[in-house]
Design goal:
Layout (H helix, E strand, L loop, with lengths): L2 H7 L3 E4 L20 H11 L2 E2 L5 H10 L7 E9 L4 E4 L24 E6 L5 E5 L5 E5 L2
Parallel strand pairs: 3-7
Antiparallel strand pairs: 1-7, 2-7, 3-4, 3-5, 5-6
Length: 142
């Protein structure tokens, strides 16, 4: 797939990083909106479609571009860990085949709470974080 086609195909993804007082819907300009993982998930589902699922290398490249404009060191995506069943999954239901972890994941420590996935703004790789941190996030739209 060529870059032009890839870019136009994922233009519908929206980066939600706007000031809470100036959000106007599908505006693409990055800003300062920060939420916990659960708040970000709720916000995306109520106002767009979902938190972005990075299930292909193409989507990963797009996320790498948009995270250049973030105000936090990490950005929430729709990656979730289940402590009971001990595996990672995309909230959209996509399989976790493509992976871009910053380091090999060992057993997740769930003693301090649930874990969710974020993309590092610097390395663009995925990391596991406690869900209660407030970060920028990426929603998908129709």
């Amino acid at each position: 797939m060529g870059w032009d086609r890839f870019f136009s195909m994922y233009l519908s993804l929206v980066l939600i990083l706007l000031s809470p007082t100036t959000f106007t819907g599908s505006k693409d300009t990055p800003g300062q909106k920060k939420k916990t993982w659960r708040e970000a998930l709720r916000y995306c589902r109520e106002n767009h479609v979902d938190l972005v699922s990075v299930h292909t290398e193409g989507i990963q490249r797009w996320v790498e571009i948009v995270t250049r404009k973030t105000s936090t060191d990490n950005v929430w995506v729709g990656l979730r860990h289940t402590c009971d069943l001990k595996f990672w999954f995309w909230v959209s239901g996509e399989f976790l085949c493509y992976q871009n972890w910053a380091q090999r994941l060992e057993m997740q420590d769930c003693s301090n709470g649930e874990r969710s996935g974020a993309v590092q703004s610097g390395s663009k790789q995925w990391i596991s974080l406690l869900e209660n941190q407030t970060l920028n996030f990426i929603c998908t739209t129709k």
